[in-house]
């Protein structure tokens, strides 16, 4: 208790338990993300920037502003500040090896114009869907002859904007081989930047989407990547999301989840096929 009081005294803004609970409840309502008590310091550090930007003097004032009817624009900034965006190219590479193998088996000899759809749900700054695009372009040499698209969605509007631009620091190229770096990016070493080539970017549609709200997509997906997203949801929210993913997958479609995530209750619908890889039954 004394340590917590001393920490509060050292902070730029006071931040009490009631304010944290209000913010945690709001985050849960808006995003489904559950903020445990040990996340209080993280919440403070991320939202203190918003208080400075708005020239507010306290978290009490910020909570009041969020609760007012004048905070619609700020609500987006609030959500963007809270959500975590940790990713890199070809993170958990076994997923991309598996995708290449299975998509090549399924579509390698399929008629041209065959429809192929992949969804990156929680795409963050875009490294995941660009990794998917590289994988598909390399494993299906006639990819341009197919009706192929990747949908990439994220809750954070700033991440969607960054992903759409396809521009990264060269140090973010970790995970890309030299061959892939040369083939799929344009490098500007004077600015320490790289940009994903337009042909690859054209394969992806980036959209802002809250996974807990309505989904406008109508067609089925051959694969869905939703990795390190469900760890922030409670059990009932996770179960509902998995049921919705199941409904969106084509028969035999694949679901890839994060290394720290598990599926227990849905194993009759989503069959484990490898490390954090699941498949919808063919019937």
Automatic annotation (TrEMBL):
Keyword annotations of the record: Methyltransferase, S-adenosyl-L-methionine, Transferase
Pfam family name, one: CheR
Domain CheR-type methyltransferase span(s) in chain numbering: 8-283
Enzyme class: transferase
Coiled coil stretches, renumbered: none
Reaction it catalyzes: L-glutamyl-[protein] + S-adenosyl-L-methionine = [protein]-L-glutamate 5-O-methyl ester + S-adenosyl-L-homocysteine
Entry's EC annotation: 2.1.1.80
Source taxon at top rank: Bacteria
Function of the molecule: Methylation of the membrane-bound methyl-accepting chemotaxis proteins (MCP) to form gamma-glutamyl methyl ester residues in MCP.
Name under which the protein is recorded: Chemotaxis protein methyltransferase
Species for this entry: Roseibium polysiphoniae
Lineage: Bacteria, Pseudomonadati, Pseudomonadota, Alphaproteobacteria, Hyphomicrobiales
